[in-house]
Amino acid sequence: MAKIALPRKFFGRRQEVLEPPYLLSIPKNSFENFVQLKVNPYKRKNVGLEHIFRTSFPFKDPDENFILEYLGYEIGDWECNRCGYKPKDDLLGGWDVDCPQCGAKLVYKEKFTPEECKLKGLTYSAPLRVMLQLKAKTKNGYREFPPKKVYFGEIPLMTENGSFIINGTERIIINQLIRSSGVFFDEKEEKQKDATITRILYKGSIIPDKGSRVEFELSGATDLISARVDRKKLSATAILRAFGLETAYDILKYFYEDVRKFIVKDKYLYDAQTGEEFTPEDLEHHYIFAILKFRGKLVGFASSKERDFIEERYIEEWEDLVRLLEDERIEVLSVTTVPRDVVIKSPYGKSLIDTLANDTSPKDIDKRSPVKVPAEYTLRDYGLMEMYKRLRHIEAITMEIDSVIERARIFFNVFFRDIKRYDLSRVGRVKINAKVHNIPKVLKPADLDLLDQLPPLALAEDYGEYKAGTRVTRELLKELFKEYKEVKVKDYTEDEARFILPIDLVNILKYLIDLRHGRVKKDDIAHIGNRRVRSVGELLENQARLGIAKMEKVFRDRSAVINPEQPDLKPQDFINPRYVTTAITDFLKTGQLSQYLDNTNPLSELTHKRRLSALGPGGLTRESAKFEIRDVHPSHYGRICPIETPEGQNIGLVTSPTVYARVNEYGFLITPYRKVENGKVTDKIEWLAAYEEENYVIAQSTPTDEEGRLKAEFILARHKNDIRLVKPDQVEYIDVSPRQVISPSSSLIPFLEHDDANRALMGSNMQRQAVPLIFTQAPLVGTGMEKKIARDSHAVVVAKRGGVVEEVDSSKIIIRVNPEEINFDDPLDIGIDIYELRKFQRTNQKTCINQRPIVRKGEKVEKGQIIADGHSTDRGELALGKDVLVAFMPWRGYNFEDAIVISERLVKEDVYTSIHIEELEVEARETKVGEEEITRQIPGIPERALAHLDEHGIVRVGTYVKPGDILVGKVTPKGETRLTPEEKLLQAIFGEKTRDVKDASLRCPPGVEGIVIDVQVFTRKGTGRKDMLAEKVEREEIETLERELEKKKNLIITGRDKVLKGLILGK
After folding, report:
1. Which of 21, 54, 728, 895 has the maximum number of C-beta atoms within 10 A of its C-beta?
2. CATH architecture designation of domain 24-176+534-596
3. CA-CA distance, 1017 to 441, in Å (whole number)?
4. Choice among 151-155, 548-552, 1031-1035, 1055-1059 with the minimum mean pLDDT
5. What crossing angle do the helices spanning 379-392 and 401-416 adopt, rounded to 10°?
6. Cα 822 from Cα 826, distance rounded (Å)
C-alpha cells in the first residue's frame, strides 16, 4: 500500500529563491574532473589524469634515442551494442565515441556492480588503458611504431553514492583544507642586539605549488629590503635582476615618478626619451645610479686576466659623476636619476632607494661596485650568478666566471622556468593577482597602456571567433575595440602565468612597503580565503604523479640497454605501467586521508563524505595547530559551519561545509549571495569566495516589501570582516537563506537560534550516532532539510525516469517508462526501469539497510520522485528518532540525575528497536596434512546440535541461533598420530582407518543471538575442483538469472502488445 505524503506547513517569513545545491557535489565533481569518464576521450579538458599525462609525456632518454608520446587514455571496457564491435589499439573507447563499423555510440560494460564487489570482497574499479606511441632514433631520423594501448592496471572508481569500494569495504577520501599557494604577508619581531628595543620585520612570501619559496623581508630597523630563496639570504636587488629587472631604471620606474634615464655622449647627458640635453650640475638633489664600463681584473674567480667589465654604481654626489665622466679609464654608458623630493613625497619612501644604494655602493678594495659582470654579459647575469652561488654553495674562486654564468642561466631556467620543477599553479596565479594586482574586470580603449603593468589576462566571454580564455594581447584588443566598446577580462592561468613575473615582484614590494607604513594589514592565517580544499580528485592526482615519476625513471634505465635498431619494440618494453594505478590504490587503502565510511545512518554517511580536515600530509598536526586556526573566523560565514566540529583534540581542525557552500575551480569555498541594486533585492545570484567578498557590503537575509526593497532604515551588514549598521542603498549583496551559515547536520535542529552553542555542537554530532529503527517516524517539527538529506545521501530510491508502476514487491519496483523518455537509439533501452531494493544489507557499523517501496502498482511517478524509503527515512524524509511523550518528574528516585524511566510499551511495541547485522565467515583451506572440509559429519557432536544445519553442514536461512550454536560445520585433519591399542584393534576388526579429524566449526560468538538472514558460499576459481556445495550454489545463481531474464522478456512482450493494440484500435 502506498504511503500518503507527509503534510508539511512552511512557517518561514520568506520563500527561498535558491534551492541548496547537491550536497555531495564536492567529492563527486572532483573525482569526475579527475577521470573525465563522461567526456569524449578525444575532447578531454587539460585537468586530472589528462593533465598529468600531457605534462609528463613525452618520455625521453638522455641521448634521445627513444621518445614515448602520449595520445590519450580510456577507462573501462567499451562495446557497440548494435554490432558487438570492441575498440582496437587505434581507437579509444569512451563516452560519445562512435562505432567505426555501424556508427552507433559505444557503451560502457561494467564487470562487477558495486553490490557484487561488496559481496565478493572485490575492488570496484575499471581498467585504465593509455594509448602510447614509441619513436626510435635511426640514421635518417626517427622511426615511428604503431600506437599501442597499454594496460596500466585497474583504477578504483567512485560509486554513485560518492564512496569507493576497496576489497569489499566502503571507504572515502576526506577533503583536505590546506594553505593555498600564492603570496602571503606577515610581520614578526626582529631580533635586535639591544634587547630593550623591539623592531618589526615585515615579510612577503611567494609560496608556489611546486618549487622554491621566494621571500622578501623589510626591516623595521634599517628600512632595507632583503630576500630569501628557500630560506637562504640574498640581495633583494639580485633577485629582481635575475627575474628581468636588470638596472636601477627598470626597478625604480615602477615606484617613483620622474625617474629618468640618460644616455652619455661626449660627457653630456641626453634624456633617453625626449633627447633633451643635461649637465651633471642639473642632477644636484637627485639620487644617481650609473652604468660604467671599464677594463680590469675580477677578484674571486679562477681567471685573473684583464677584460672589459660593466658595473652599476650608486653615486652620492653629482661631483662624483663629473669625475667619472672625466676619467679616461671609465666609460659611462647610462645614468638613472630620481629627484630627492619625489622620493620624500612618494608613498614608497626611501626603502627601495636605500636598498639599491646599499647593494651598488663601492665596497671592494678597488673602490668598485659589487654589481659587475664581463661586458659581453648583462646585469641580469649578475643576479643569476649571485642566486646560483648562494643556493648551490659554489666556491667561485675555483671556476671561470664564464662557466659560472652559463651554469647560473641553466640553473635559473630549470628551477624557475620549468613547469616540472616550478609551478605557481592556477590557484597561486589567481591569489597573487587578487592580492597585489589591481586587475580591472573590464578593459576599454584607454586602458591599452595598462597591459604592461598587469599580469597576463584572458577573455572572460566569447567575442566573435575569439573564445573565452583566449590570451589578451595588445593586437587582440585593438582588433576587438573596432567592434566592442569594452572587453571583459579575467585571470590568465596558463603558460608563463604559472611562473613568477617581474611585475609580480614589483607589486609585492609595493605591498610590503605599504604594510610597513600601516596602509594595509598583514594576512590572517585563519582566513578561509587563504586556505583551499584539496578534494579527492586532486589528492589522487598527486599520487598518480608520483607513479608517473617512477615510470619515467624506469623508462630511462631501460632505454640505456635497448638497441634502437630492434624491429619489434613496444612501449611495454620500456615502462612498468602499473605504477600509476598502484599508487592510487595504495593511497585508497592506507592513506592518512582514506577512512572507513561511517554509514551508521544517512546523515552520518553524508557528513563523512563532506568532511573537511586540516590534518593529513602537507596539512597541520594536532600539536602544532594553535587556537587561532581552530577558532571560528568571520570569513567562515556561509562556507564552514561554526557549530559542527568534534569535541576533543580535533576541535576546529575537522569541520563541515555549510548547506550552500561549493568549491570553485581553484578549490576555494564559495557561497551564494543575492545582488542588491539601489536598495532593491534582485533574483541575480553571485557566488563569492572569502577573499572576494571583503570588498562588498553584505547584509543578512532581511525582510523586504512587496517590490523587493529593504524595509528597515538601518540594516546590519558585514564589510571587511567587521559588522556595522548601514543604509539600504549601501547594501550590495544579501544572504540567500538564513540556513546558509550552518551545515546539514546543524540545519536539522529546529529553533537552533535558541539553543546553547555547546549543546548545539553536541546535538549535531549525536545525530550521526542514531541507529536506524525498524519502524521509522518523521519528526512532527521539521526544518525543511529532511527530504534534501535523505535524497542526497542516496538512502532513498529516486525514479530516474517518469512512468507507471508496472510491478512492485518488497525487493523490487518495475516502472514502465513514458514513451517520450525512451531512448530509441539505444537497442538495450526496453522502456522499463527495474529498481532492485537493498534488503537487510550490513553497513560498516553493522547497522541494517532495508529499503521499502512507497508506491503501488498502477501509480504514476515523475522523474526525480522518491519511490522507496531507506534506513532512517519515512516517506522520503530523514527520520532518525521518534516523537515520544516525556514527563519531567521524579519517580521514586529511579530517574536520579541522568537515569530515565521508560514505558513498557516502548519495548513491547518495538518503538526503539533496531536491527544489527553480524557477519561471520569461515574458510576451508588445504593444509599440509590434508584438506579442510565443510560437512555435517562432525566428530563428537550430538545430532540435536546439528538439527539446524543443511545436508552440507551450513546453517539454514531463517534459523534463530544463540551463542555456541554451530553455524558452519567444519573438520580439519589432525595429521599423523600414534594409534592406541584400542584403535589398532578397531582398525583390525573393521578393516578401515578411523576418521582422523578434529572439530573446527564456526560457532555463534558470545553475546550474539538472532536470525540468520543470508548465507553466501564462495569458491576460488582455478582450483581445479568443485564440490557438490559449489555446484549447487552456482546452479541456484544461474536459475535466478534465468528467472529474471524471463521476467524481463515477458515485460517487453506485454509492452509490445500494448503498443500494437493501441495502433490497431487507433486505426
Report:
1. 728
2. Alpha-Beta Complex (3.90)
3. 65
4. 1055-1059
5. 80
6. 9
Q: What span, in angstroms and rounded, lies between the C-alpha atoms of 652 and 642?
A: 9
Q: How far is CA 612 from CA 408, 534, 658, in A?
A: 43, 9, 11
Domain 661-736, CATH = 2.30.150.10
Where does residue 233 fall: left (phi above 0), alpha (psi -120 to 50 degrees), or beta otherwise? beta
N- to C-terminal Cα separation, the chain: 38
CA distance 545 to 125: 19
C-alpha cell at 1034: 552456482
How many C-beta neighbours within 10 Å does residue 725 have?
11
Q: What is the Cα–Cα distance from 22 to 658, expressed in whole angstroms?
A: 12
Q: What tens digit of pLDDT does each residue of 777-797 get?
A: 999 999 999 999 999 999 999
Checking if the pLDDT of 82 tops 70, the result is yes
| Amino acid (1-letter code) at residue 276 | E
Instruction: Find the helix or strand (DSSP H, E) in which 236 lies.
Output: helix 236-242
Question: What residue segments make up the domains of the chain, in order of their start?
Answer: 24-176+534-596, 211-417, 661-736, 771-909, 926-1016, 1026-1066
232-235 β-sheet, strand order: 182-190, 199-207, 214-219, 225-229, 232-235
Sheet containing 594-596: order of strands: 164-166, 169-173, 594-596
The three cell numbers locating residue 1054 = 506485454
Closest to 383 in 3D by CA, of 216, 235, 503, 249: 235
Among 342, 366, 384, CA closest to 292: 366
Q: How far is CA 268 from CA 261, 274, 337, 419, 657, in A?
A: 13, 14, 15, 47, 68
- The reply to whether 926-1016 shares the fold of 24-176+534-596 is no
What is the pTM (predicted TM-score) of this model? 0.89
Residue 73: all three cell numbers together: 587514455
* pLDDT, average across residues 161-184: 94
pLDDT tens sequence across 992-1012: 555 578 888 999 999 999 999
Kindly state the DSSP code that residue 911 receives in the 8-state scheme: T
Torsion angles phi and psi, residue 292, rounded to 5: -115, 155
Cα torsion 994, 998, 1001, 1007 to 10°: value is 140
The helix/strand/coil state of 386 is helix
Largest CA distance in the chain: 133
Q: Give the span between the Cα atoms of 800 and 817, in whole angstroms.
A: 9
Q: What beta strand segments (E) does 453-522 contain?
A: 457-459, 487-491
User: Residue length, the chain?
Assistant: 1067
Q: Which residues pair with 960 in a beta bridge?
A: 1011
Q: DSSP characters for 544-581?
A: HHHHHHHHHHHHHHHHTTS-TT-SS--GGGT--TTHHH
Q: Please tell me the CATH code under which domain 926-1016 is placed.
A: 2.40.50.150
pLDDT in tens, 802-817: 999 999 999 999 999 9
458-515 per-position pLDDT tens digit = 998 888 888 888 899 888 988 888 888 889 999 898 888 999 999 999 999 999 999 9
Cβ proximity of 693 and 672 under 8 Å: no
What pLDDT is attached to residue 959? Answer: 93
pLDDT digits (tens, 9 = 90+) for 901-936: 889 999 999 999 999 999 999 998 888 877 888 888
**Cell triple for 359:** 647593494
State the cell numbers at 319.
661631483
Assigned CATH for 771-909: 2.40.50.100
Per-residue three-class SS string for 77-138: EEEECCCCCCCCCCCCCCCCCECCCCCCEEEEECCCCHHHHHHHCCCCEEEEEEEEEEEEEE
For residues 765 and 724, is the Cβ–Cβ distance under 8 A? no
- % of the chain surpassing 70 pLDDT: 95
Nearest 5°: the CA angle 112, 117, 122 is: 105
Question: Which ranges of 595-741 would DSSP assign to H, the alpha helix?
Answer: 602-610, 627-630, 690-693
